[in-house]
């Protein structure tokens, strides 16, 4: 596709083109020209021209060849064709030699591979260019705005046909469309992106869900709590969130010469409440739940309906317990999660144990005990799970639960985290 784009629009500069769950995308930079002062903006008709060029490349059955070169040679070649983004990509490659793949004698790119032997092995009628979107280079809004082409490729035309049917069904269920059509919620750009306004009808639905959630937690032995929306920045430094999570936090505000932080999560607040008085181990466990509204900084280009926002109400809970109570409590949390999700028709899950990341706090013993408790709880329930090595939070391992919706898509939903570090 990148070769076809540059054949069609020679001024285009190539950046990255990774695969994703349902296909792949490629990002291109179009520099300003006399005809396009702010750079070319690709349209649906442009996609048709690109696809025709792709078909010609496939029909030509060009050989796809791998070549290994030195870093210096790769740099020389990139500079000779004026591809500055490729230079940045080259600087980020840590291994040598550098691998290059070429299509015939005309086009090449940095790539780890592997690939097919020739373009003629690709099925023209099983490839579709889907749409164009904007994206910042490296996800940084201070960098260049790129044109991202989304595409999908399948082994056979029938597989592509089934995929397109799947997309049609997904479009019917797009919550952004339904939210507007049913007058449930809106995102008001005058107030700022990623901030949700619940309309009367949506509020009625939300109230029903919240009442059910509260009743389920009270029946499960939880007490409900409420906490503030802001706190002194020192609290987030003490908890470690500022050091490990500050990129996801909004800037601070100054109150009487002290810095305050709008909260991105509820954890430190519940710990403060637990510390507020002397506790006896005989009273454990304490189970506290909160529908806490939190605020997290997300780049504007990543915002997406209700799925990726800057302010949301989190159904959150913290259980304070003895180490010997830990596995039983995790089992109870998982059962409560199952019972709540099943009421909404979610009965198919994907479960992952996310283990210690490189950037973390705490001793090996703490991490081993926490991970062992999570694994033991899942084994006790007989639930199948995989392992996401290094996918845990900075303070502890977790169980990630993905639900499957009506048309088979999976979504990250509940998380059960085990934290020995924050209480300390």
Mean pLDDT: 92
Count of runs of 4 or more consecutive helical residues:
12
Q: How would you characterize the largest beta sheet?
A: 5 strands, antiparallel
Helix content: 25-40%
Radius of gyration: 26 Å
Instruction: Note the gap between the termini.
Output: 53 Å
Our estimate of the beta-strand percent is 25-35%
**pLDDT < 50 runs, ≥5 residues:** none
Tell me the total number of β-strands: 20
Global shape: globular
Structural class: alpha+beta
What keywords describe this structure?
424 residues, 12 helices, 26% strand, globular
Short account of what is shown:
With 424 residues, this protein is of the alpha+beta class. It has helices at residues 2-8, 44-59, 71-80, 84-92, 157-172, 175-181, 200-219, 233-239, 241-245, 267-275, 326-343, 364-381, and strands at 13-14, 19-20, 23-29, 64-69, 98-103, 107-110, 127-136, 145-153, 185-187, 196-198, 223-224, 230-232, 253-255, 258-262, 286-295, 311-320, 349-354, 386-388, 398-404, 410-417.
């Amino acid at each position: 596709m990148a070769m076809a784009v540059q054949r069609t629009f020679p001024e285009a500069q190539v950046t990255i083109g990774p695969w994703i769950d349902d296909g792949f995308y490629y990002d291109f930079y179009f520099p300003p020209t006399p005809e396009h002062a702010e750079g070319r903006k690709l349209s649906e008709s442009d996609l048709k021209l690109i696809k025709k060029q792709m078909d010609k490349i496939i029909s030509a059955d060009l050989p796809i060849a791998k070549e290994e070169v030195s870093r210096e040679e790769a740099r020389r070649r990139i500079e000779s064709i004026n591809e500055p983004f490729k230079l940045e990509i080259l600087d980020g490659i840590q291994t040598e030699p550098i691998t290059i793949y070429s299509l015939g004698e005309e086009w090449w790119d940095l790539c780890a591979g592997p690939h097919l032997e020739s373009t003629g092995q690709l099925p023209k009628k099983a490839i579709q260019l889907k749409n164009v979107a904007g994206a910042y280079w490296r996800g940084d809004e201070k960098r260049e705005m790129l044109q991202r082409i989304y595409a999908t490729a399948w082994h056979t035309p029938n597989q592509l046909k089934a995929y397109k049917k799947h997309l049609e069904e997904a479009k019917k269920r797009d919550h952004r469309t339904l939210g507007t059509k049913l007058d449930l919620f809106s995102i008001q750009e005058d107030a700022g992106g990623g901030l949700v306004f619940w309309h009367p009808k949506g509020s009625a639905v939300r109230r029903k869900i919240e009442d059910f959630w509260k009743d389920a937690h009270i029946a499960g032995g939880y007490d409900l709590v409420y906490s503030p929306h802001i706190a002194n920045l020192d609290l987030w430094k003490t908890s470690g969130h500022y050091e490990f999570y500050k990129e996801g936090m909004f800037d601070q505000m100054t109150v009487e010469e002290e810095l305050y932080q709008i909260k991105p999560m509820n954890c430190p607040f519940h710990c403060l409440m637990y510390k507020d008085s002397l506790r006896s181990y005989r009273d454990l466990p304490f189970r506290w739940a909160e529908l806490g509204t939190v605020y997290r900084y997300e780049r504007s280009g990543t915002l997406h309906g209700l799925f990726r926002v800057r302010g949301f109400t989190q159904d959150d809970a913290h259980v304070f317990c003895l180490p010997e109570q830990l596995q039983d409590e995790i089992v109870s949390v998982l059962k409560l999660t199952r019972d709540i999700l099943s009421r909404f028709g979610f009965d198919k899950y994907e479960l992952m144990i996310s283990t210690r990341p490189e950037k973390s706090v705490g001793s090996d013993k703490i991490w081993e005990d926490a991970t062992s408790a999570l694994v033991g709880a899942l084994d006790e329930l007989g639930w199948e799970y995989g392992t996401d090595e290094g996918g845990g939070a900075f303070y502890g391992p977790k169980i990630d639960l993905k639900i499957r919706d009506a048309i088979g898509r999976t979504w990250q939903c509940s998380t059960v985290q085990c934290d020995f570090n924050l209480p300390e």
